[in-house]
Amino acid sequence: MSVSSLAFSILLVGIGATLVMDLWTLLLRRLGITTLNYAMVGRWVGHLFAGRWRHAAIGKAASVRGELAWGWLLHYATGLVFAALLVAIAGEGWLLAPVLWPALLFGVVSVLVPLCVVQPAFGAGYFASRTPTPLRSCLRSLATHGVFGFGLFLSAVVLGGVRGGLTG
């Protein structure tokens, strides 16, 4: 696979997987379950550009111009980075013949980023320890990242079907 074809495949798989995750969180919201507000991610990014990494409570920090757009941009950029990491670990052959378990395992392991980096930076503590329901928050994050992992697999399967349809 050429470098440009590999990069384009990773781009499509990362966007697809992030979109699957977004559909999952939309379902959760419709069920009345609180999910991450990407404006808070953008607020954090805005403050990060100003040199502030951690907050006591990101929701109480001063708002930042364009925070919702920044939040969504970082959300999708993270999905692309995670897709690239999966392909780097599993090999580009995984894109040509996707297998569920590496993607699902990667998705589940990727939950360590929000639990150990993002939540503490937002003021929620490691593993959501400063939230009213830490275990529930952790399990919700774990499920969401599991869905992301499934989305990586599903996106690679769809891409393979499209690729096969174009060459067949």
UniProtKB/TrEMBL annotation:
The keyword ATP-binding does not apply. Coiled coil: none annotated. Keywords: Membrane, Transmembrane, Transmembrane helix. It holds the Pfam family DUF2938. The chain crosses the membrane at residues 6-28, 73-97, 103-127, 139-162. It comes from the Bacteria. This is DUF2938 domain-containing protein. It comes from Pseudomonas peradeniyensis. The lineage of its organism: Bacteria, Pseudomonadati, Pseudomonadota, Gammaproteobacteria, Pseudomonadales.
